Amino acid sequence: MFNRVFAGALALALPFAAVQAPAQAQEKVLKAVMHADVRVIDPIWTTQTIANIHGALIYDTLFGNDADQKPQPQMVGKYEVSPDKLTYTFTLRDGLKFHDGSPVTTKDVIASLKRWGAKDGVGQRLMGFVTKMEPVDDKTFTMVLKAPYGMVLESLGKTSSSIAAIMREKDALTDPQQQVKEAVGSGPYMFAKDQWVPGSKAVYLKNKDYQPRTEPPSSFAGAKVPGVDRIELVWISDPQTAMSALINGEIDFYEAPTNDFLPLLEKARGVKLMKTGKIDSTQGFIRLNHLQPPFDNVKARQAMYYLINQEDFLRAIVGNPKYYKVCPALLTCGGPYESAGGREWMKEYNPKKALQLLKEAGYKGEPITVLSATDHATITPATQVLIQAMREAGINVDAQSMDWGSVVSRRAKKDPPAQGGWNIFVTTSGGVGSANPVLHTWIGAACDKGLFGWPCDAKIEELRNAFGMAQSEEERKKIANELQARAMEQVVYIPFGQWDTPLAYRADRIDGIVPNTGLAVLWGITKK
Amino acid sequence: MTTYIVRRLFATLPVMAVVALFVFFLLRFAPGDPAAIIAGEDATAEAIAAVRAKLGLDRPMVEQFVVWTMQLVRGDMGVSIFSNLPVTRLISQRLEPTVALTLSTLFVAVAMAIPIGVLAAWKARKLVDRLVMGFAVLGFAMPVFVLAYILIYFFAVQWQLLPVQGYQPIKEGLWPFVQSLILPSLALGITYMALIARTTRASMLEVLAQDYMRTANSKGLATNRVLLLHALKNAAVPIVTVIGIGIALLISGVVITETVFNIPGLGRLTVDAVLKRDYPVVQGLILVFAGAKVLVNLIIDISYAFLDPRIRY
């Protein structure tokens, strides 16, 4: 009663208070809040996921992986592979034009692939097999390999880390260590740089000249039909405000609502939640520093498995079992290469045994430095659970609290922990990328050239290469199993489960949401 | 007066130079590396080092400082490490929302605080006074973000009278502009309202106890005239000082308000830039904030001369 009376009084006091329609009322505008703001316009220069989402709107790719992670032609009209599987001939489809009106030619494509191949980890691996790329004419080019690498098309269509975005030749000639100055692609949307307010809003306008494919859309494959006139990626840093804005109808799409708010969103009128895809969106894991004692000893690394009860981590991070999955594996559970290899390492939760094994490995109670992020929605609680488990086991923990930006900086240091280095940090990886041994860079063990923690094991790298060379799905699965077993034994990292952050959107206002595989697919969304 | 203003303006130069020096080196000594953030999750140490080298962050700190200072002298604040856009453009994009929020908050705070402060002094130790003082304590105690969420819940989510978030520039129309500022100004203004109301009350009580006030009352002047023309004018100097301090405090206050209400102002730009270690943007912002603070102090000092004829420069 009070509410009604008070609301009535306020309505009288504020007669024009109804939220006004935006200036572009005639335009169909999609307002989406993503997991981060667009600050970088070059998806090759950075591997930030948000830069890839931006890139996928404005740039097209030769191939696009479908919902089953199978590469399908996107800019390519037809392609041929020679019988020895060493020469790929690609022909671009008709009607491809950059946003400035210039046609997409093989010169643009080759320059773009070279730049991507110089920067991106998967691209570098592919280019390691490429001996030459040559244009046949403006629409056809060849890629010649020195060995029959089996991941060519998957690499060109991947969505994890940097997508193989096709830029204008003049942009693609930019040093890969520097950001391109203009974001001009040939994709379904054009970047409105003049309306860009970094940290607040990025605007994309429908590319009216875009010629979509005719196949039905499936994740990054098939027709990319721009569904609205304008997409605004609005950045709302406060999750509670973003949730309220969605409930209030001020935004249409919220890519990554915080797990705490899911029960509220489930009940909100007009709002729907959607699982992001066939594969869980995130895998969480603990990385040990293989260069510094005690974890330079494989026995000490293996001891850490006995401290992990994945349910503890997942309950702290996600809460609702509907959205998480216990998965004592490195290759994503539910993915095409889900494997049983090495899972026995994580069968037992036994802190006493962990300490005993650590002692056997030479640990004498020295402080173990854990980089503890204080400002991350999932990594912060996971790190707290780990620290608690270590302390309960009797391990001397030196928890170094800092913001995530500082963790990212410090984890790159190879020095001993006392001199600014580290022993342990916690992080996450995309579920789609982690499902494939070649795309999943964290499973690698390339020593100094690998990712932070620097695992070093020739056998693992050999198996990853073998996976890339495998010519049949059966062979790949066999290698994936063997690779996971070896990586678990060497403890390249310790998984603590996987979870899904569902997309939230206004079902009464928008349609055409596609479950994504690795990156949010925004171009097909239509406004009711 | 003119000589004084010119002298004060020149005196800001060394202040700004010291601020520039401190902010530059403090940022460089703070942990964190923009190259690691740019390179992203899947970047190797080699890739991070390559980005760092291209950004010039591997050069000696003194060399970096000299380069930045030379740019500043030319009026160039540099470009954002992330967006590659000029810092001046980023700041100018964000200036209007922050200025609008600061002024609307001050307007709300001053327009409500001074009358209730005067009222509390006039009715000292009575129920009205206690209510005003109770409100002031509550205003101080209530964190801005708590009040902000309460306002959002009722006015935006439950009753849908005002938007949850966002900012509408004045060019989009006066009402949308005002509408987007009502809740943020209220949330942020309560604290300042409390501060100004308490100061007004204390200052007024002191003035009301003076002999000349007794004379004014004995002459049979109307209460309104006594309170507003005689007492308030004489109590104005401490009030103006507190309003000035309030403007300085607002600079830190808007950070939270801008975040909760998603207003793309300088406060949010600062937080984002600090978290991302976007050095040129943080440096530029601190200089702008320092300059604004110096200017506000100067304006307050000048205003003393108008409020109190005994003060001369």
TrEMBL record, chain A:
Annotated signal sequence range: 1-25
Domain of life: Bacteria
Pfam families: SBP_bac_5
CDD domains linked: PBP2_NikA_DppA_OppA_like_16 (cd08502)
InterPro entries documented for this protein: Peptide/Ni-bd (IPR030678), SBP_5 (IPR039424), SBP_5_CS (IPR023765), SBP_5_dom (IPR000914)
Subcellular location: Periplasm
Keywords, in A-Z order: Signal
Domain Solute-binding protein family: 70-427
Broad class of where this protein is predominantly found: periplasm
Family recorded in the similarity comment: Belongs to the bacterial solute-binding protein 5 family.
Name of the protein in question: ABC transporter substrate-binding protein
TrEMBL record, chain B:
Membrane-topology annotation of the record: Multi-pass membrane protein
Compartment list: Cell membrane
CDD domains: TM_PBP2
PROSITE patterns found in the cross-reference section: ABC_TM1
Regions that span the bilayer: 9-27, 99-122, 134-156, 176-195, 235-261, 281-307
Keyword field: Cell membrane, Membrane, Transmembrane, Transmembrane helix, Transport
Record-linked PANTHER family: DIPEPTIDE TRANSPORT SYSTEM PERMEASE PROTEIN DPPB-RELATED
Name of the protein: ABC transporter permease
Species for this entry: Reyranella aquatilis
